[in-house]
Amino acid sequence: EVQLVETGGGLIQPGGSLRLSCTASGITVSSTYMNWVRQAPGKGLEWVSVLYTAGNTYYTDSVKGRFTISRDNSKNTLYLQMSSLRAEDTAVYYCASGYCNGGSCFPTWFDRWGQGALVTVSS
Amino acid sequence: EIVLTQSPATLSLSPGERATLSCRASQSVSSYLAWYQQKPGQAPRLLIYDASNRATGIPARFSGSGSGTDFTLTISSLEPEDFAVYYCQQRSNWPPVTFGQGTRLEIK
């Protein structure tokens, strides 16, 4: 069974930094497209970033230069390093794997999701 | 950035009825559109990808249609567990991937 578990959320002051982790079981992070998607309280979904199996990374404009997606293959864990945090970054952050069906995999159809980690940016 | 507009914002129906949810894109996304279901306190669940393909394990009562700018998610006969918020999402012109604002399907 695939399981994704996010940790590292919490309350952080504006301008601060935080690192989220997403530990996977049942899938291999290095062999799977992995994403971060966030949801502000009571709001809709917003894609944040994707890490390809080949190492390519992509970000939504509002986090470029502030957030970095990465992985540790030995720990089968995905990360999101967040810096220069703003109030508008307050959200539940989900990690989500790309969808694979047969021999085809799609980086940004979001298949398996974690339970989410709440990040609150406030003074 | 492609904007997805979902309608209606809220849909009130009874179990057993047919639900039709719409998603309109600000420009063509071809067939690169997906639908997700989200229940309170839970992560979203992928239902449909590439406009009309059911994801693994999704019941046949869920179907998707459309291409270009206009898309529909149909639930043929509502079950009690289908009442939730539904989001559409495009991956045609990205980054960024974008989502619609959601349609809340509530029990009448």
Topology of this protein?
The complex is a heterodimer of chains A (123) and B (108).
Chain A (H helix, E strand, L loop, with lengths): L2 E5 L2 E3 L5 E8 L8 E6 L5 E7 L5 E3 L7 E6 L4 E6 L8 E11 L2 E10 L3 E5 L2
Parallel strand pairs in A: 2-11
Antiparallel strand pairs in A: 1-3, 3-8, 4-5, 4-9, 5-6, 7-8, 9-10, 9-11
Chain B lengths: L3 E4 L2 E4 L5 E7 L7 E6 L6 E5 L3 E2 L7 E6 L2 E6 L9 E6 L7 E2 L3 E5 L1
Parallel strand pairs in B: 2-11
Antiparallel strand pairs in B: 1-3, 3-8, 4-5, 4-9, 5-6, 7-8, 9-10, 9-11
Description:
The complex is a heterodimer of chains A (123) and B (108). With 123 residues, chain A is mainly beta. Chain A has no helices and eleven strands. In chain A, strands 2, 4, 5, 6, 9, 10 and 11 form a seven-stranded mixed beta sheet that branches. A four-stranded antiparallel beta sheet of chain A has the order 1-3-8-7, with no helix packed on it. The mean pLDDT of chain A is 97. Chain B contains no helices and eleven strands. In chain B, a hairpin with a 7-residue loop joins strand 9 (85-90) and strand 10. In chain B, strands 2, 4, 5, 6, 9, 10 and 11 form a seven-stranded mixed beta sheet that branches. Chain B has a four-stranded antiparallel beta sheet with strand order 1-3-8-7, with no helix packed on it. The radius of gyration of chain B is 13 Å and the shape is globular. Chain B has strands at residues 4-7, 10-13, 19-25, 33-38, 45-49, 53-54, 62-67, 70-75, 85-90, 98-99, 103-107. Chain B is mainly β and 108 residues long. Classes of the chains: A mainly beta (123), B mainly beta (108).
Secondary-structure element series of chain B: EEEEEEEEEEE
Structural class assignment of chain A: mainly beta
Task: Please summarize the sheet with the most strands of chain A.
Answer: 7 strands, mixed
Please give the count of helices of chain B: 0
Q: Give the strand tally of chain A.
A: 11
Basic shape of chain A = globular
User: What does the average pLDDT of chain B come to?
Assistant: 97
Helix content of chain A: under 10%
Main interface by residue count: A-B, 23 and 24 residues
Radius of gyration of chain A: 14 Å
**N-to-C span of chain A:** 40 Å
SS-based structural class of chain B? mainly beta
Low-confidence stretches of chain B: none
How far apart the termini of chain B lie comes to: 35 Å
How many runs of DSSP E, i.e. beta strands of chain B?
11
